Here is the input.
Amino acid sequence: MKKTTLLLLLLLAYAAHAQEEMKTLYQFEVNHAFNHIGYGTDDLTASYVASTKEVTVFDNKDGKIVWTKKFKDITDQINKIDDMFPMGSAGLIFVIDRKVGKDKMVCIEKATGKLMWVSDKFQDVDSQDNLVFFRDSEEILITTKKNATLIKMRTGEVVWNTEKYKGVTADYALGGDGSVILVNMKEASQVAKMLVGDIASFASRAASGFKNQIVRINLSNGEIIWDQTYRGLVEEKLLTKEKLVSIKIKEGKVMLFMKGLHVFDYATGKPMWNAAYDETPNAIMDYIKKQAKFGSLGMAKIADFGAYGIVADPVIVDGNAYVIDMVDKRHQFVKKFDMQTGKLLWQSPEIKDARAIPGMYVEGDKVILQVGGLVEVQAVITETRVGSAMSGGGSSSSTAIGTAEVKPMNVQCFDANTGKQLWESDKMKKGITNLFVENGNVIVCSGKALYSMNTATGNENYEVPLKEDNISEASLILPFNKDEVIIIGEKGVSAHNIASGKLRASSRYKYSSPVRIGGEVVFGNHMALVTSGQDYAVYDLPSMTYKRYDARKGAKAFFSDDGKWLMVYEGGGLMRNSKVTKLSTE
Here is the structure.
């Protein structure tokens, strides 16, 4: 009787939390596999899916297929493609057919499938990073390891060419005066080799004539107004390929954010000052690798690995720059610089033994640091099976994004005027997910409890255990609607009042991680969790309810900007058809 009662209670609890499936707005099958997906926020009227030999374009609103064509029927100059780059707001698709020394670029009109042009002038275009799209002029700058060429995208006509700028463009910023600032980087494969100390790659890099360049170019004629080198190596994330660099132009200065801050004079390119640190010490990376967790993948061998967010980005406030200086694996400081002169205004006391400082915030006259805690890790995982090939033996590779917990962990506060340490809290010494500053308080999570601390004193306003949330251990906290904090757990989501810490609502789900698009997690009032098997739960945060959709493993999904619908792309194969599904999240 007791067992029956317990089972009934469990079934009732499950039923109370059971969530309905997302409503299918449309779903259609594609008669070919696809490994290229064209979806973007610039142009939501149509999307495409493509294999190496065939492409289908469909209307985003109703899912009707606009056209399907084989590439050889669009032009007899290619039979297959190796890569595909959409220019959404221009209504064009660029495809590449790669053959050593005989690459061909093809431009197709997305609305009709009409061939615009074919050219063999552009060799070694390895990725979309080789293309810089200038929307107003409808021109594209194609940058390779040999040169840079500006073309008119609808005709392929060359406007100008220069061999004075080379390499993949990592980031760029328009100057507003007809010129552009570009920063280059080496191709991803060679960067990866250099990061693990491949001496031959360094030699190849030097022999190829490649150099770290930040340049200002006149877009009308290709004139190099100035050309400077920068210190360090531009990295990109292992799996998501996000570039860990950005450029901003402000008050006559070019600011290059890359492992600290590099400042150049906009007019002349002259280096003004920099506050940059060297590569993360190998000892720290080895430590983080040992702490890495990838959900349900277990103890498989890590074949390739990257860790990100180890050091917080510089913060610029009121004409001053606050920068974390990682001198070596055991000596770290916060430094404050005058943005106009680069003069060091103060250096904080040593932040002893820190392996990671992933968060820095300036609030009024206080500088808040998160020392240690969770950092993002990405990896290629190799799983080995015992037995012969016929019985399922051998090995396979998969990719995974997870977290690593870096110790020691604490929160520190410094006087923004003097650099003097005001307080330190080791309340989170057993765990920190992340923190943010809101209305004079530090909101921080240990994974098992939510805290609010006064920025002036470090005194606790509250400590709220998260056991009642029933979402397992927390992995991320986010501010929401000004008065709430959203807590993303390993198995669900909850919402607390920021001022009191009181739990408003929570909803449990399976072991999962948040869907990130462009670095964002929340879209309107919605956010999504995805399991390793591509099961999706899209939450309505005000009601803390979710709707679900179980996709095939390997599927990809994209949110609308308002979070009201989700596109899911499930590629096919020999035994199953490809399909595209648009789902309502409301």
Observations:
- The CA atoms of residues 177 and 508 lie 53 Å apart.
- Residues 135-147+162-276 form a domain with the Thrombin, subunit H fold (CATH 2.40.10.480).
- The helical segments are 2-17, 71-74, 188-195, 199-207, 282-291.
